[in-house]
Amino acid sequence: MSFFKKLNIKGKLVFISIFSVIVSLMLFSAILLVEYHNENRRELARNFISVAKIIAHNSKGAIMFPDSERAENVLSSFENEAQVDYAVVYDADDRILGSFARGLSKKTSMDLTKEGFMYFEDHLEVTEFVRMDGDVIGRVFIWINLLELNKKLNDLFAVAGVTFILSVSIIYVLILRLQAVVSGPILSLAKLAENISRSNDFSVRGKYDSKDEMGTLYRGFNTMLEQIQIRDSELRESNEQLIHAEKLAATGKLSASIAHEFNNPICGIRNVLERVDEQVPLPDRHRESVKLAIKECSRIADLIKQLMDFHRPSSGEFVEFDLHEVVDEVIHLKLKQLEDQSIGVEKYYGADVPAVFGVPDQIKQVILNILHNAEDSMRGIENGSIIVKTEFVHPKVKLHIQDTGHGIPGEVRTRIFDPFFSTKAKVKGTGLGLSVSYGIIRNHGGEIVVQSAIGVGTTFSITLRVKAKSA
Amino acid sequence: MILRLFTAWIFFVFVCASPSVSLAQNRSLGREEMVKLSYIYNFAKFVQWPEERDQAEQPFVVCGLGEGALNSGLYRLASEAKIKNRAIRVLLNPASKNISDCHILYIDSSREKLLETILSQVGSRSILTVGDTPGYGNRGVALNLFVQSGKIKFEVNMKSIRRSGLTVSSQLLELGKMIEGDK
Q1: Closest C-alpha to A370, from A304, A308, A440, A315
Q2: Nearest CA to B48 among B104, B131, B116, B110?
Q3: Smallest CA–CA distance from B10 into chain A, residue
Q4: A70 — contact with chain B (CB < 8 Å)?
Q5: Contacts from A13-17 at CB under 8 Å and sequence distance 24+?
Q6: Using H for helix, E for strand and C for coil, what is the string for A76-110?
């Protein structure tokens, strides 16, 4: 069977088919030949029983009025029958009345007291009783050689053999052609799979349109390729996202460390200025300047602290915290820039808003992102404003951040949460802000939705949970 | 069975049986007579009488004319065998008016001088005439037995057979010696 295992699909199909055909043909012809052989033997026996009956009938007179000449005359009709080698007419006492012999006389093997026929290796013997008025008055015995019968059978065997070889050859050619219907798709699918694994090109598809199992296999294979392709592109995107995020994190770290480096000198400068203010007599005008310098130094120190806080890696720990405090902190971080653009910030905090559940740094990042975008959207607009509103809609807290910017066009609105989608200049935006925000809020089990009208402004609404899900 | 034994016995006697057996079987009949008797008996098997069917229940009548040994042998035949499944009735030297009852009429050599008279009494009746005297065949006896090189043969007078209206098997005719004469 190891030979069979080594064959390819085509070889297996051909082998199975040919094997089945040969077995069934052999069986069929064997049955036919045996039947034909037996029928021929039966027929030969039948024929010679008839002949023996005629001989018996014609021998009656010769037996009744014993006449060897007459008996032999009757038997002489076998001169022209090459199958008969020996024939005898016996009288009632089993004495030979007349005989016919082609060549040597034969020895009878059959039991002459029984009527009928018997086959021997090379001949057939037939015994027929001669009856007169119901009495056996003699016997006719015929010895028939099987040369003609065997020749007939040999001829048939030869014809059967030639037919067999011819049929098998024709069937082999047919199967060789027909097996392609089954093996073709399998082979081409195997080739396709091999090509794909070599080239890694998942965009190719197997082409086979049929309702059979092969069709199902092809469709399944194609679906699998499609899924691999989708997964591939998703993987590539999230990979890019990861690289960007890492870059951002590195940038954040760098800026945090720079801020830290700034902190000490600024503190030093402020100390010096404070000492100057305390210990050096100065005219009022200058003292004001020194006090202002001290105030600015404090502000720088505050900003640095906040910056460092912001860039401290997120703990990722979910806690209950006051949303308003967090919003205030972020607005404070952003206030200077907003003031520079003469953007006003209005806050409408709901009095009943409870502590929300989440990771404060991440929520800060989301708010900062939205404020960035609000700021950008109001570029070139005089007296823009940002309205921050919180409300408690049982059981969740909603935070709305509304701007009076240009608004977001419809076709853009559907894509703003996609990664790397940005309408800002390449150098300014990463296209990750809102997508990361979206991810964060989803992680918090909340929602982030956008409403926008061109020329009126945009509102981002964030829904946050109040308590841990399990609670 | 009896018939078969009888036939077998006759052949046995004819071909090469030991004389002691034949003597033991029959003291009054010689070997030749036994064979002739069997021939007369066997002739009946190869001959069909026209009225055979109607007489199926009646005995088959074998007549003998003359004083020869064969005539007495006919009784023996009648006691041991049947012809065409009918019992055999033997009429020895029947009156001329009874000749018409005969199916087979055996005429021996002692009636040689009366043969023509007898045959005229037979006329065209369906009677199979059998003889064993040289010249009988030519004179109008249908089947006449004779001995040739130690074997019993018979002459067939086709004219007589035709006149009697009997149907004789071709096998019998082929075995016999054909004569057309009717003196």
Answers
A1: A440
A2: B104
A3: A64
A4: yes
A5: A13/A175, A13/A179, A13/A182, A13/A183, A14/A172, A14/A175, A14/A176, A14/A179, A17/A171, A17/A175, A17/A179
A6: HHHHHCCCEEEEEEEECCCCEEEEEECCCCCCCCC
* A90-99 burial code (b ≥16 CB/10 A, e <16): bbbeeeebbb
User: Which two tokens mark A107?
Assistant: 């020895």
Chain B residues in contact with chain A using a Cβ-Cβ cutoff of 8 Å: 1, 3-4, 7-8, 11-12, 14-15, 39, 42, 45-46, 84-85, 151-152, 154, 169, 171-172, 174-175
Q: What is the pLDDT of residue A333?
A: 83
Instruction: Name the CA radius of gyration of chain B, rounded.
Output: 15
Eight-state DSSP code of residue B114: G
A chain contacts of residue B174, beta-carbon cutoff 8 Å: 61, 70
Tell me the residues of chain A between 73 and 102 that have a Cβ less than 8 Å away from chain B: 91-93, 95
Q: What is the DSSP string of A92-159?
A: TTS-EEEEEESSSPPPP-S-TTS-EEEE-SSEEEEEEEEEETTEEEEEEEEEEE-HHHHHHHHHHHHH
In this prediction, residue B14 carries a pLDDT of 46
Query: What's residue A311's pLDDT?
Result: 63
DSSP-based three-state secondary structure for B107: strand
Long-range contacts of A175-182 (CB under 8 A, 24+ apart): A175/A13, A175/A14, A175/A17, A175/A18, A175/A21, A176/A14, A179/A10, A179/A13, A179/A14, A179/A17, A180/A10, A182/A13, A182/A214
pTM (whole model) above 0.80 = no
Q: Return the percentage of chain A with pLDDT > 90, whole number.
A: 36
Structure tokens at A95: 């004495």
Whether residue A454 has pLDDT greater than 90: no
Q: Is the pLDDT of residue B22 over 50?
A: no
Which residues from chain B sit within 8 angstroms of residue A66, using beta carbons?
Answer: 11, 14-15, 151
Beta-ladder partners of B143:
B130, B156
Q: Residue count of chain A, please give it.
A: 471
Distance from CA of B117 to the nearest CA of A (A): 30
Give CA–CA dist A108/A112, Å, rounded: 8
A256 neighbors A308 (Cβ within 8 angstroms) = yes
